[in-house]
Amino acid sequence: QSFPLTKNENSLSLEYSLSLFPCIFLSGGCDGALISQWPECLLRVPSSATELHCYQNNTEHTYMYWYRWQKDGHLVLISVSIEGNKPTYEEGFQSGYEAKRSGSKKLSLTVESVKPEDSAVYLCAAS
């Protein structure tokens, strides 16, 4: 799923790296739960693996999501994790990505082999 994001005076201004080392920027937030993501910023050599982490403080939110905000302004769903079930992956993310749920509050995302097109803002959400 892809969602266009509009930019206004209150939006986040982003600059993307055009180097051979893709940079993965992270940001978090949602309504009704405190979302924490780490690390805040990563710089990885292409073909290396990297892991992103997300924690939410509301045990009533059994759904957790990873999104990627791409350079073209689209917000793309990567994976959905429902507590007690295996994560599902959207088209284009079935291989090379692994979401791992640890209890009801933590979700990690592993990118197995970073590519330049992986340079983006990664967002975690819970509902």
Automatic annotation (TrEMBL):
Keywords: Immunity, Signal
Transmembrane spans: none
Any one of the GO BP annotations: immune system process
Domain of life, source organism: Eukaryota
Claim: Signal is one of the keywords in the record: yes
Domain Ig-like residue range list: 22-127
Signal peptide span: none
A cellular component term, taken from the record's GO annotations: plasma membrane
Record InterPro entries: Ig-like_dom (IPR007110), Ig-like_dom_sf (IPR036179), Ig-like_fold (IPR013783), Ig_V-set (IPR013106), TCR_beta_variable (IPR050413)
Statement: the UniProt record of this protein carries the keyword Cytoplasm: no
PROSITE patterns: IG_LIKE
Pfam families: V-set
Protein name, per record: Ig-like domain-containing protein
Taxonomic source organism: Lepisosteus oculatus
